[in-house]
Amino acid sequence: MDDSYPVPGATGRFEEVIRRSRFVSCAGRAASRESALGFVQSVRDRFPGATHYCWAFNAGPPGSTARIGASDDGEPRGTAGAPILTAVLHSGVGEVVVVCARYYGGVKLGTGGLARAYARGAKGALAACPTERKVNRVPVLVTVPWEASGRIDPILRKLDAQIVGRDFGTDVRYRIRVPVVNSSRLRAAVAAATGGRGRVEDSCE
Length: 205
What we know:
Layout: E1 5-8, E2 12-18, E3 21-29, H1 33-46, E4 52-58, E5 68-71, H2 81-89, E6 96-103, H3 110-128, E7 131-134, E8 137-145, H4 152-158, E9 162-168, E10 171-179, H5 183-193, E11 199-202
Antiparallel strand pairs: 1-7, 2-3, 3-6, 4-5, 4-6, 8-10, 8-11, 9-10
Helix pairs in contact: 2-3
């Protein structure tokens, strides 16, 4: 099963003015709570002086609620963080954070108006955010006889395995990171290429 998924590849930004309040919404990568809070601070630094900086993040796969967080940052409870988080969880993108900076324009929007404004800002930022595919990889050690080593590199390229290092001794030892989805195929391919003499072992790096 392919367990890769889309994640932000760069920052997405969406701006609009609603009844004189300016909303600047930014979406970016958040693989952890710490990186999400770091992104929040970067938006604060980039757009100083806003009345509120409301945010939400999902630091896991798309739609997962195992590692999430949200903040209304002084707006009425449930009018900012919750609608932003809903947009994040329904975006189809993983490891993502959205920050909506609001510059208050003197006209109250009401709780419903605020919720709609923050949801719209989050969706706009997410739509503007370019994505790339995250591939979950596992570290593996591949050991093969010298005479078979020339047949291994094409296998590694075909299976999208990243070579971290190569050690030459009696045998050739590859330290690689292979997509989880290709790990069983790697074992079979190495066995076939070496007549069963190659070894594929899990690694702790």
